[in-house]
Amino acid sequence: MLASNMPFTVCRNSVQALSMHGVFKRSIEKTIGLRTAKRFTALVCGLLGTLPVQAQPTQTPAVPTPGFDCQRATKPVEHWICAGPELARADERLNELYRTAQAKPDGVAALAALRAAQLRWLRERNRCETPACVAASYARRSAALEAANRRVLQWQGQPFAPVFSRSVPFVNDTRVISGITLQQSSTTAFQVELYPDPRDARPWAHGGPGARIMCRPPDWVEGYASRFDYSAHTWGDAFRRIERDGRSGYVLLRFVVGKDLPLNEDIRCSVALTEWLLDQPSELHVVPQPD
Description:
By secondary structure, the protein is α+β, with helices and mostly antiparallel strands. It is 36% helix and 26% strand. The protein folds into 3 domains: 8-50, no CATH class; 70-151, no CATH class; 164-289, Sandwich (Jelly Rolls), CATH 2.60.120. It contains 7 helices and 10 strands. The chain has a 6-stranded mixed sheet, with no helix packed on it. The protein has a 4-stranded antiparallel sheet with strand order 3-9-5-6, with no helix packed on it. Strand 7 (240-244) and strand 8 (247-257) form a beta hairpin.
């Protein structure tokens, strides 16, 4: 398509190139003749040059959305957040960091401590008497959550007795590791650990690759009701970095037999790695952990 207000020479060359193409060329020459075709080109390009250029729509920045309903705001702090884009953006960012922290596979005790710290911070924030105090409060809490999310587990010399281990030769976007079998008579937490080759280290800026676990009975048949059906999904930002006996990896997922899955049942699980690019062999382990 020819754009309006284009230079005359460019327009003429475009129309002539189109008119000299195959059937269209023979049709023009037969119908109006070559000389008339050149006059037609000049007329079309002259008209296009007089048409106004349509303004391109400009993208407006996304309006930050606080993590609460501004229509129901009652506290002065909440009104300041709703009225100021910078404070609203700080609230939005902190909520994102907190959701990532909640998704970390750190266990029940760590999650309870995280929630207690967040409630304590909310009480402190609500005691602020100026918007500047609120901004400083958000900055401190966001920095604390960022540091907590980057924390690396240091498990040097800790007991390591996986119930399942598999060498994964490579991953080109997606790979499913199946054949994970479990049976527990008492409540037991498990975590899925992945140790990529150091040559495959590719830090991600946001989001990252994914991991999903699916667990069902061994006799499960698609289309029929299952005695249990467990599935959980997580992503790169929510993985927990781990250093274990000289190896660097990730705790991808954590689940509990006796809570997420039933006791005294044969359980068969699969782990799917999605949107990964691992050229070298990696190690995947399912490891029992105290919860």
